[in-house]
Amino acid sequence: MNYGNTLPQEDSDNSTFGRGMVKLSGGQGGYWRTLVADSVKVGNGNILAAFEYMHNDGPFVNPEDFRKLNGVLRYNIADAQNGFNITAMAYDGKGNATNQVAKRAVDEGLISRFGTLDSSDATFASRYSLSSAWQHTDTDSVIKVNVYTIKNKLALYSDFTYYLNDPDNGDQFKQYDSRVTSGLNASYTLISKMGSHDMENTLGLQLQNDNIFVGLDNTGNRQTLSTVRFDHVVESSGAVYFENRFTWSDKFRTVAGLRGDVYRFHVASDNPANSGTNMDALLSPKLSLIFGPWAKTEFYINMGGWFHSNDARGTTISQSPGSGVDSNIPAAKVQPLVHSKGYEIGARTVVLPGLESSLTFFRLDFDSELTFEGDAGTISVGRPSRRYGFEFANYYKPTKWLTIDADIAYTEGRYTAADPDPTVKGDHIPGAVEGVASLGCPYMIYGRISAALDCVISALTRLLKTTAYAALLRLY
Fold it and tell me: What is the pTM for the complete model shown?
């Protein structure tokens, strides 16, 4: 459900170009990029095609030699209310990876800050997809159907502990994931009135199936030495939802919904003790209150429930997937679906010509927090957590050739329960991002030459956590 975003927006056509384009760019660190795109009219529709190739070495002593190929081919037949499209997309990327290094190695001069202790670390990824969408609109109803299938492959070679566990071959490991995802989204919206009040009721269905082969190997120089764990996972899910949009007056609207999700996890592990099947289901209510507009400004209050799913392998695990005697260490199963609750209050305005701004304060509670453990390359299930903060977004288009996109956000995340291990102190969530800001200034000259300035600034925590702001958040 999309809350508080009801002011008029510009329509966009992502299936045609006013004219074809060829872009060539380059820079230091072995960076260069080629982009070719065009669209042609065929019958009642349009064919869009685009291709991109990019190479980058970066500042690293061991050149990243990252190569990326992107391609899209799309056929589209559409007017303002009805349409059909079919889209094929492809991505392939590979390169060397300079991962985290020991600070003492830099301090002692063994390597530079851009050096590496294992030059065979690498990343390989690919993604191919085929999707289609159809929409039919009558005077009082809208039907939407979308189907898709996606094939993903990922292989990561990492080494965080060097020779701690294997003094002879080193501690490099390979994480790999190969999966095919297929799904369907369908919805039916009935547009009607209750007395003099406009009303829309939507009934929707979502189905998805992931067929996954995932594993973890101990490697040396990208050669497999042993298998820590290998699993075939089939994760299937289905959801039914209902949404009601009701206009109570010209200054007040509501959006209310209820969604039910069912998940099934089936795991066939190389360790039979970790194989099995598990299921879970959850209901998620949602409500949005939208006030205005007054002077081209709307105010909104959103609340609702949601969830995140845990790793399917954790729902059936019985023994630790370590090597040697560690394989006999028992492991606890995790809850398949973890409930969350969210609250949001904000405003969105277009009072100034060409400027669209929104300011939102939010709070999000999770029954369980997922934490990435970099040294092991795994994700662990932790304590309940709470996040609160704000987001201030601005989109300004002073002229036809210049756009300024400026956003700033701050989030404070904390655990809300004590750790079962009494030796663990504090309530900070490891790795939680706090302050983030971004500034983008794409511009076009005479419709032919384009350029962009993008600046991303992270870790603004100390600048943002002023006494006044902290007090404001706590009052909220």
Answer: 0.79
Task: Tell me if 89 sits within 8 A of 106, measured CB to CB.
Answer: no
Asked whether 390 and 361 are in contact (CB, 8 A), the reply is yes
Sign of the dihedral defined by the CA atoms of residues 105, 109, 110, 113, in that order: positive
pLDDT beneath 50, residues of the chain: 1-13, 323-326, 374-375, 377, 445-449, 452-476
CB 244 within 8 A of CB 256: yes
Report pLDDT digits (tens) over 149-205.
999 999 999 998 888 889 999 999 999 999 999 999 999 999 999 999 999 999 999
CA distances from 404 to 297, 444, 446 (A): 20, 12, 18
pLDDT tens per residue across span 453-476 = 444 433 343 444 443 333 333 333
Q: Where are the beta strands (DSSP E) in 28-140?
A: 31-42, 45-56, 66-78, 83-96, 122-137
Distance of alpha carbon 270 from the chain centroid? 30
Q: Assess contact for 115 and 107: CB atoms under 8 A.
A: no
Strand partners, 128: 90, 151
Say how many Å lie between the first and final Cα of the chain, rounded.
Answer: 24
Amino acid at 394: N
What residues contact 343, with CB distance under 8 A and at least 6 apart? 302, 303, 362, 363, 364
d(CA 390, CA 470) in angstroms, rounded, equals: 11
- Write out the two tokens for 299: 């105010």
Residues 164 and 149: beta-carbon distance below 8 Å: no
Distance CA 159, CA 217 (A): 12
Single-letter amino acid code for the residue at 153:
K
Beta strands in 195-222 (DSSP E): 197-220
Across-strand partners of 242?
Answer: 203, 258
CA angle 24, 26, 30 (to 5 degrees): 135
% helix, strand, coil for the chain, step of 5 = 5, 60, 30
